[in-house]
Design a protein that fits this description.
With 269 residues, the chain is an all-alpha fold. The protein folds into 2 domains: 49 residues, no CATH class; 213 residues, Orthogonal Bundle (MetI-like fold). 76% of the residues lie in helices and 0% in strands. α2 crosses α12 and α7 crosses α8.
């Protein structure tokens, strides 16, 4: 029975791979095909032209958008980890009143639509001069990323036996030093998972970045800018899209084990 089901499983896996890779291939086709022929009959075999990649990479607007996204993503990850790690540690290793409702509230906060917070923060950031800055975007992203990070880190802290922390306290560690010296080394996979998933989410986020930036957009906004008022630059749009995707693909492939573990952490409970 199992041998009969193997061809079907292989077929499903092959179909999933094709459906995943085909959009990437087609973006590459748009980027390397003559822009005049982009509207013609689709061709899978052709001589690629890489001029669009050079045009995009020498475009100062796109380069600045990459820098903006890198800084925004890095700041968001650092703040979320700095807040979420001790918060998750306390919720797991200390008696917290109404802990379960608090966890549910964290989940609800993560699921709040982006546009709900975009307009209020637009007015606030205009007043305090954080509009159109990487720090401003990173602070807004904490509304969603910190609850997400706390939820993931709670699952990893629960995997550590309580006896480990008790032994550290008996040996003279304070709660802070036990977290730093004992728990963080044991949950480095969780920290990596949170960093990776937050990075992917922030890098691809559009709604808040569109509302809270103008002269310093992030990568998704810069890519959309290649859709001009009078014409659509298909090859440059494809090249910019491909260049914006490649870092996240490489990031995800490099740390896919941590991503899978983070997504499945705590599911057995």
């Amino acid at each position: 029975m199992q041998s009969r089901s193997k061809p079907f499983i292989y077929l499903v896996v092959l179909l999933a791979i094709v459906m995943t890779l085909f959009p990437l291939y087609w973006i590459f086709v748009l980027a390397t095909r003559d822009p005049v022929q982009a509207f013609g009959t689709p061709k899978f075999l052709f001589v690629p032209q890489f001029d669009a990649f050079g045009q995009v990479w020498t475009d100062q607007g796109f380069v600045h958008a990459v820098i903006m996204s890198v800084f925004t993503t890095a700041i968001t990850i650092l703040i979320a980890l700095a807040v979420a790690t001790p918060a998750a540690y306390i919720m797991v290793r200390r008696h917290v009143r109404r802990r379960q409702p608090l966890i549910v509230w964290l989940l609800v906060a993560y699921l709040v639509p982006d546009f709900v917070v975009a307009i209020p923060f637009y007015n606030i950031f205009q007043y305090i001069h954080l509009y159109d800055t990487a720090i401003g975007l990173a602070l807004v992203y904490q509304v969603f990323m910190t609850p997400f990070a706390v939820t993931i880190m709670i699952a990893f802290f629960r995997d550590i036996p309580p006896e480990v922390g008790e032994a550290a306290l008996i040996d003279g560690c304070t709660s802070a030093s036990a977290l730093w010296r004992v728990y963080l080394p044991l949950t480095r996979a969780g920290v990596a998972t949170v960093a990776i998933l937050i990075g992917i989410n922030v890098w691809n986020e559009v709604t808040i970045a569109l509302a809270l930036t103008s002269d310093h957009p992030t990568v998704p906004i810069a890519v959309a800018a290649y859709k001009g008022f009078a014409a659509l630059k298909w090859n440059q749009l494809g090249a910019a899209s491909f260049l914006s995707i490649v870092p996240m693909i490489a990031f995800a492939l490099f740390a896919q084990r941590h991503i899978v573990r983070g997504l499945t952490a705590g599911m057995s409970r």
